[in-house]
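Notes from hallway chat w/ T.B., transcribed later so I don't forget. T.B. wanted the structure written out for a chain they're using in a teaching module, and asked if we could keep both sequence and structure tokens in one place. Agreed to drop them here.
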Amino acid sequence: MARQEFDIEELVSQIQRGAIRLPEMQRGYVWQGTKVRDLLDSLYRGYPSGTILTWESPLEAPIVTGDFAIDVDKEIPHQRYQLLLDGQQRLTSLTAIIRGKPVKVKNRINPIEILFNLEHPDYITIHTEIDIDDEDNAEDTIEEKDELQKEMTFALSSKKLKASPHWVAVGEVLNTNDNKEFLEAAGVTGWDDPRYNKYNDRLIKLRNIKSYKYDVYVLDSKKSYAEVTEIFVRVNSSGVRLKGSDLALAQITAKWSGSLKLFEEYQKKCYEAGFDIEIGTLVRNLVVFATGQSQFKRVNELSTEALKEAWEKSKAGFDYAMDFLKSNVGIDSSILLSSPYILITVAYFKNNHSSPEEIANLRKWVLLANMKGRYSRASSETYLNKDLKAKNENGLDTMFTDLRAQFGRLNVEAEDITAIDSRSNYFKTMFMAFRKDEAKSWGDGLIISFKHSSVKHKIQFHHIFPKSLLKGQNEEKINDISNLAFIGGGVNREISNKEPSDYLEVIKNKYGEKALTLQQIPIPINEENFWELGKYDVFLTKRRALIIARLNEFLEG
């Protein structure tokens, strides 16, 4: 194994001209912007950043290659090239930053943009992340995130930071050799400015990232694809960067050339059907149909023909599972799914339940497993294997017994939905129950759905008692799902932070009580007005009871 040394600029150039390519065994690009930011921070400080592993391609046996997540120049036919085995995430990120190219990965359309702080402190700052779970106070959350990033050296781009004179775009700096423009934009007008040397030195140091040298280890071209795959598996299994499904995928592509393209085509079909499924889930489903269990340890024993046969069966099963979840259960999107393992279980049970009673029981099991989080906790693979094994034993009877053993009871009680927020599986089930009742967003008359295309009608999680009015309450109590309703974005903004005693009365008078009761919002009778701000606890108790009753009815069909 030869060892070479290349700086980042040369490695990026090799990727651009096709001298470095991806073997089919490689997974796709998965890094988020925060990972790119942290990589740049490490390179800027000169910290170790790992090594690169490649394989000199054999000319006599062309290797099926995959696609980088960025556009590269047209590959030169018959050119000798190296296949990238370890370092894809880093080099793809750096190519995107240095070349200003968009990364083709889900939820990303624009190029990754990282900003550099000319006024950064000399000490290292902890990179705190903020998640936006609902849109009631999204702007406040973004402002809070900007505030936290002020002390960072690198930060994800935002309008506020970008408008600040001492924040500069990393990509722009790396693509120029002159600091004058950046210094002037920061208000530095001449050599006598006390900030001149500091800013100028930091820009030079930032630009020197391109000169950071990686050790590149090159495997001999005489090694077989199977041998290289084994090396790939061993190298990547030593860390946490690749999951078991990624390593299994490498072994499958070593035996079955072109299989990754088939998996990607079917993944696209799933996405179009509403299910954003990872390749790893499809690989696991394939293994289930090939071996009757979900662990990847037996992948290496499977022949190419066995893999092909199992793939066709697994596709048919997955098609059935997606259709069953959409038509019989009401789960028509990954948003409502607690774990993709539920799809695998239903796929494996394909056509195994034909009577109306069996279909009804399978629906109930799916709803319960999804709501309770059957595969959302530790040992999820163990639970999956138990359910797969049940197909050949007592089927659903065994599966229901295992659910009870795991959770104790299968109905919904007050303790299950108290102080839980919109991330809960109970909340997803609540949405499905309300949607089945054809609950509508107040004001626009549209049945609630996550698939509305207009921003105005897109469903948001509305706090019935606005967060800004519940001062002194803890976060869990404010975000309790009994305080959440589903309405369109336009209506949500119109309500803003009005008191429920004001706007709920208007909705009741204008659209009728049913507009509220279909979302299990209790209606005050006589003089007991628990819509008033001081009666929040009373409101939560009453609505929670209504939600529990509706969920238990919904689970029974």
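Follow-up for T.B.: The longest helix spans residues 304-329. Might be a good example for the class.
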